[in-house]
Amino acid sequence: MKSMIGVINLDHELDVLSELTYFRCGAAVPFAGRYRLIDFVMSNMMHSGVEDIALFVRRKYRSLLDHLGEGGPWDLDRKRGGLFILPPDWNDPSDVSIGEMQHIYNNLDFFERGPAPHIVYSGSQHLGSVDFSAAYEYHIQQGADVTLIYSTPEELLPEHRPCVRLDVAEDGRVTDIHHEQDNRNIYMEMFIMEKNLFLQLVNQCIAHQESHVFRDAIQKNRHKLKIAAYQHTGYHAVINSLESYYRNSLELLNPDTFHALFDPQPVLTKIKYEVPAKYLEGAQVNHSLVANGCQIDGQVENSILFRGVKVKEGARIHNSIIMQKCVIEEGVVLENVILDKDVRITAGIKLQGDVRKPYVVAKDTVI
Q1: Domain Glucose-1-phosphate adenylyltransferase/Bifunctional protein GlmU-like C-terminal hexapeptide spans what residues (predicted)?
Q2: What does the alpha-carbon distance between residue 305 and residue 320 come to, in Å, rounded to a whole number?
Q3: pLDDT tens, position by position, 107-144
Q4: I need a labelling partner for 199 at 20 to 30 A (CA). Which of 39, 287, 297, 310 fits?
């Protein structure tokens, strides 16, 4: 869609997942056996026809760069346009911008060179198959200055507590923006706005030493702007804590939940060519997701195993998430555990967490 350019802002998503974000930003955290959290919003933009996407990053993005490459899986490895990974420029002596505004001020050429008249702006913590092209058509029909994308979950969960809430009138207009905990209209940290208006509001924020795009450019101007609300009605998960990551991951073992996330449109990710999973004589696997390259000679139940995991004879894994290339040696017992990449659990060790607070082992650890 040449009517929109994409902006994915990762500035506030650095350390929310504890051990899983020791060595990477939140958007690069592995999810669902073979994906990263960034894949979902990238895929949504790609399927909506967005051809130019900027990622605003600040630190801990080496893993993200390795995963995204030149953007090939999302058809963004183009001679013109495509994927732009844009840290702020620290060397401009005239720059008075702070916070998120630094990214925009230091990369104005991205917006000025892009031919699209509108932007679609998002983070990576809200997962779902969001149709940005339908949201754009709604934005135009409403004649809105800005359209906020929201979801209304059947049940409010702990991860919804820090989320912004919207009051929405019958005509689709936003009448208030707040944090009232009993309101179920959850703002998904995604909006669509005309590009020139966006840059105008950003310049006003910079002039007043304001730092936050949504709070300072939109929420503070809610009485001056015509703000519409587009409701996303499909799958929606918020990954803003270790507990929400663990619970939403294991909920994908329910086929209905899995298909609600992955069936509306494909989720694209970095391609890795590996052999199929190998189940040895002692393997017992039940109600689990097992990725390519795994070799299993133990018991796995209600768990997610990423690529290349080795589970040796007599090992038992229950209610756990085991990331890429972990080695689980003989006789190990893991229950309610998250192992980051390249962890080795030596023979006979038992690790047990709680379903409400899993036991987490950071990347490259040997126990």
Answers
A1: 283-351
A2: 8
A3: 989 998 888 999 999 999 999 999 999 999 999 999 99
A4: 39
Band (1; pLDDT cuts 50, 70, 90):
low
Domain containing 179 equals 4-262
Average pLDDT over the chain, rounded to an integer: 94
- Widest CA span in the chain: 68
pTM recorded for the entire structure: 0.95
Closest by alpha carbon to 147, among 177, 173, 182?
173
Nearest to 190 by CA among 45, 2, 68: 45
Q: What is the DSSP letter of 217?
A: I
Distances in Å between the alpha carbon of 272 and those of 20, 33, 275, 314? 22, 13, 10, 29
Is residue 175 within a helix (H) or strand (E), and if so which, with residue range?
A: strand 174-178
Instruction: Give domain status of residue 366, yes or no.
Output: no
- Is pLDDT above 60 for 82? yes
Give residue for tokens 């449109």: 265
Residues 74 and 198 in one domain: yes
Amino acid at the residue 329: E
Same domain for 232 and 99, yes or no, is: yes
Please check whether residues 223 and 258 belong to one and the same domain.
yes
What torsion do the CA atoms of 137, 236, 273, 275 make, to the nearest 10 degrees?
Answer: -150
